[in-house]
């Protein structure tokens, strides 16, 4: 089972994404465990559970320096995928899931 952590700026927008992804994961019977966290709580979340992939929402790009520090520290070695603005805005779940499977 692949574990995926969605990172959003405040966690609010990611909850909608999480819900839609969970629906599709259930319908397709995929071996994916999806969770989400707001940007300010990433280190705490990573200290409690191991993840295979970080799925980053477009808003987090405002925190580039902090993300680079995170990827060099607690998240080093983890794959990460930034969701495009269009995929996030239009909730293009099929494309996002395809990217997760390929990561």
Automatic annotation (TrEMBL):
Report whether Transport shows up as a keyword of the record. Answer: yes
* Keywords recorded for this protein, A-Z: Phosphoprotein, Phosphotransferase system, Sugar transport, Transferase, Transport
**Does the keyword field hold Transferase?**
yes
Q: Which InterPro entries match?
A: PTS_EIIB-like_sf (IPR036095), PTS_EIIB_3 (IPR013012)
* Domain (PTS EIIB type-3) ranges: 1-103
Q: Name one GO molecular function term.
A: protein-N(PI)-phosphohistidine-sugar phosphotransferase activity
Query: Per the UniProt entry, what is one GO biological process?
Result: phosphoenolpyruvate-dependent sugar phosphotransferase system
Q: What is this protein called?
A: Cellobiose-specific PTS system IIB component
Q: Which organism is it from?
A: Lactococcus termiticola
């Amino acid at each position: 089972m692949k574990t995926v952590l969605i990172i959003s700026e405040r966690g609010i927008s990611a909850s909608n994404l999480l819900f839609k992804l969970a629906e599709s994961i259930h319908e397709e019977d995929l071996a994916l465990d999806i969770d989400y966290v707001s940007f300010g709580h990433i280190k705490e979340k990573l200290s409690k559970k191991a993840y295979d992939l970080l799925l980053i929402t477009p808003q987090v790009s405002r925190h580039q320096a902090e993300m680079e520090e995170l990827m060099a520290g607690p998240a080093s070695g983890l794959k990460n995928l930034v969701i495009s603005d269009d995929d996030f805005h239009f909730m293009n779940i099929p494309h996002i899931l395809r990217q997760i499977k390929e990561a």
